[in-house]
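Internal QA ticket QA-208
Title: Verify multi-chain structure generation after dependency bump
Assignee: T.L.

Test input:
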Amino acid sequence: DAMVIQNPRYQVTQFGKPVTLSCSQTLNHNVMYWYQQKSSQAPKLLFHYYDKDFNNEADTPDNFQSRRPNTSFCFLDIRSPGLGDAAMYLCATSRDPSTNEKLFFGSGTQLSVL
Amino acid sequence: AQRVTQPEKLLSVFKGAPVELKCNYSYSGSPELFWYVQYSRQRLQLLLRHISRESIKGFTADLNKGETSFHLKKPFAQEEDSAMYYCAATSGTYKYIFGTGTRLKVLA
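Actual output:
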């Protein structure tokens, strides 16, 4: 089945140790998103790629970076994770946001920072 | 500021009872409204969207522009409806704004 795949499901890192989360899609969608979701909070958009164009949200910390080497893959890099970065990270895709297309989500990566 | 509000964190109803999950929005322009659902151990997925006017799994949602609401309703709740429900809005851009979610528990 075409889908959005996130690896790993659970990730544990140490305070200050760089970590990378990965997302791949077989939907051939133009747009890929990274959301951060903390307990009992709404998913918060960190950034998105429209094809190769990177768009950062104004309030996304510099500690968070992203790469999209090709249409299928997108990575979230956290350069120096702090305790406050422990959260669920959701990857999502959409075909064409200008037509209000729905989002397709991955299963998420639960990040713990020790 | 653009905002989606779900006032209830938790809603418990008995099986067979009517369900209404509330969603209010504050949005410039004419947003498209969605309900997403997350069942236990599953990914977030679309339940329904305003523009399609569908009834999915017995759920419906009516957009009330006067009250800026998009409440989700079902006349008779089933145990399998127990899940986390998120209301979301977008307006032809990349940005989808989500509410904080309502956990629905349907009791036997």
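Spot checks passed. The interface with chain B takes residues 4, 31, 33, 40-43, 45, 48, 50, 55, 90, 92, 94, 97-100, 102-103, 105-108 of chain A (CB under 8 Å).
Status: verified.
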